[in-house]
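Annotated sample (chain length 222).
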Amino acid sequence: MNNNETTAASKASKPTHEHTHDHEHSHLDETELRVRALKSLLSEKGYLDPEALNVLIDTYQHQVGPQNGARVVARAWTDSTFKQWLLEDASAAIASLGFTGRQGEHMVVVENTSDVHNMVVCTLCSCYPWPVLGLPPSWYKSAPYRARAVSDPVGVLAEFGITLPTGKSISVWDSTAEVRYLVLPEQPANTEHLSEQQLGELVTRNSMIGTGLPDPASAVSQ
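Output written by the structure step:
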């Protein structure tokens, strides 16, 4: 379980492979095309039930998603005891809220602070914490993101509209088949008076991956 650190003013030193795909995800990359071809082949041979697969996908797209992770973050922002538990044993703390299951058996939560910004990637494939974030977005699975999150995290964040203060370090965490990471973002300013539910409205999916920040207090619905 390794992480690679850099600063907002410099690039990470970890080498990476070359790529030719655009960062935009308006088209299918080679990996996704292969997955679709494999799915079709397995369906044709009767090894895969398309309906069962559709139910699984629907579950993680519409019933399980970033709203679960937002509840975890909001609880940590309002309950210091839970936050400490989350940072020490994320799997157990998250399970206490009822969020368990496939791709979330072994969780680690990393906290953003005034000195450190965390970002999550899976350099080998697309390991992702389904129980708290749902299915991974297309860009998370793309070869450009998997390569550049490690080699140029500052540039990647800039493409997502995030510019960190000069000198703030970036820690890049590489998810694996054994461990999934979740970022605990910094609580937005002037939100101490908000309820846990209202705070949850400010937590974005990208803020829990590290490619975004929570919404400001003004975004809370009245």
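Annotation: The mean pLDDT is 82.
Annotation: Residues 64 and 91 are 17 Å apart (CA to CA).
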